[in-house]
């Protein structure tokens, strides 16, 4: 044995030290979609809200079909705007990690001051939409699915099933933001369908308008929901980090 040689076994760190994971710090600016998402929401609300905050039925973009239709529509738009703003906060990982209290408060606002009242009003105005039976079916089904995914996410959070909570809320978020996609699809559908007014639609502007509305209604929320599910399933064994 050589003098001065230390033959003691190497120190084995405690189990807690061996299993502890040190996650790298993630800064808010490493989520490049956060800024554009916020800008899109602000721009959309700046365009959509003013006609309804004026409480002037003449400025409504949707013709009324029953006496209280405009009031129901105003409530739907205002509560839906709350849902959009709080959804943008909810989906921001930095806020969830850095300010959990704000995350919880905005989450409750999203559910109880946003989706639930807006979705319930959507059931009524959707069932009475002036844009035809195909759009009517889409609006009512969207309201049901929107309410269902949001409530499932809320229940999962209450039961501390946070993995399920995040998955359901991603679906709810996609449905909340699908109204933006709806407003983009409408003009595109009009560009392709208007030249067929005299042929396919027999000169009926009502039929043309209902077809454009129906395409925007159905395509927007179904595509958004499918995209959300594909995003969730891209790595099924990975913990959600939205």
From TrEMBL:
Is Membrane one of the keywords UniProt gives this record? yes
Q: What are the TM regions of this chain, as residue ranges?
A: 33-50, 70-95, 107-128, 140-157, 169-192, 212-232
Give the matching Pfam families: DUF2306
| Superkingdom classification of source | Bacteria
Q: Which UniProt keywords are given for this protein, alphabetically ordered?
A: Membrane, Transmembrane, Transmembrane helix
**Name this polypeptide is given:** DUF2306 domain-containing protein
Organism for this UniProt entry? Amycolatopsis dendrobii
């Amino acid at each position: 044995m050589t003098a001065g040689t230390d033959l003691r076994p190497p120190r084995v760190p405690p189990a807690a030290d061996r299993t502890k994971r040190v996650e790298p710090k993630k800064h808010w600016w490493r989520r490049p979609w956060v800024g554009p998402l916020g800008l899109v929401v602000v721009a959309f609300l700046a365009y959509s809200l003013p006609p309804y905050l004026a409480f002037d039925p003449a400025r409504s973009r949707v013709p009324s079909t029953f006496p209280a239709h405009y009031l129901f529509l105003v409530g739907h738009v205002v509560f839906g705007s709350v849902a959009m703003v709080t959804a943008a906060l909810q989906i921001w990982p930095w806020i969830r990690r850095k300010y959990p209290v704000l995350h919880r408060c905005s989450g409750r606002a999203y559910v109880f001051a946003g989706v639930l009242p807006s979705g319930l009003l959507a059931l009524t105005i959707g069932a009475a939409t002036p844009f035809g039976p195909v759009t009517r079916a889409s609006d009512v089904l969207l309201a049901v699915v929107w309410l269902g995914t949001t409530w499932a996410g809320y229940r999962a959070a209450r039961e501390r099933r946070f993995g399920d909570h995040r998955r359901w809320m991603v679906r709810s978020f996609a449905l909340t933001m699908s109204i933006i996609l709806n407003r983009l699809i409408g003009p595109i559908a009009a560009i392709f369908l208007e030249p067929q007014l005299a042929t396919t639609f027999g000169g009926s502007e009502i039929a043309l308008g209902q077809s454009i509305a129906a395409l925007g209604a159905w395509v927007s929320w179904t595509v958004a929901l499918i995209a959300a599910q594909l995003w969730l399933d891209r790595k099924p064994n990975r913990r959600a980090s939205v």
